Amino acid sequence: MIRVLLVDDQPLIRSGFRALLDMEDDIEVVAEAANGGEGVALARKHLPDIALIDIQMPLVDGIEATRRIAADPDLAAMHVVILTNYGLDEYVFNALRAGAAGFLVKDIEPEDFLHAVRVAARGDALLAPSITRKLINRYVSQPLDTGTHTGLKELTNREREAVALVAQGLSNDEIADRMVISPLTAKTHVNRAMVKLHARDRAQLVVFAYESGLVVPRSS
Prior knowledge:
Domain HTH luxR-type: 148-213
Organism: Actinokineospora alba
Strand order of the largest sheet: 2-1-3-4-5
Number of strands: 5
Number of domains: 2
Keywords: DNA-binding, Phosphoprotein, Transcription, Transcription regulation
InterPro entries: CheY-like_superfamily (IPR011006), NreC/VraR/RcsB-like_REC (IPR058245), Sig_transdc_resp-reg_C-effctor (IPR016032), Sig_transdc_resp-reg_receiver (IPR001789), Tscrpt_reg_LuxR_C (IPR000792), WalR-like (IPR039420)
Largest sheet: 5 strands, parallel
GO molecular function, one term: DNA binding
């Protein structure tokens, strides 16, 4: 059962998402909150698998809520998905840097929304390569030197290769095929890189890969 927390200051939005989620046998909405502060408190109380958090709310916004969740060791297994009305913007990128696993635009189709919740619950990033390139091109002004970036020095060559493939949107099975290794070994490389880079999930590996210069964004 996938346990979900909804955090949005608009009751109509919350009720709409809840209605969709409540129809699914494998998903349960455990709590709702009207701002980020309430959301963090309820996350600590209910320990959901997924928190769907609006990016712009009064009192405590989605970025700060994500930052608090990411800093709480008791919530390390929880995945934050940011909800936005506007698609790609600086707020979304800042939320990803704060620890969000991805983002969804609120006018998403119902079947795509449900699929995204299940994807996030598996720990996969909700970031298509084309979306990633647009974000990085717009909000990362200058990739860091791959030879001097501290995080990169911690990684083995195979771990660097795996992180670069994660940034291209590949799954562990696809990484295994590309690197000619077993899926278990691919997963091990990715997991070790996450530990060394203190990344909560694959989305943060994507951001790291572009910010460090390990992967250079191409024009869309």
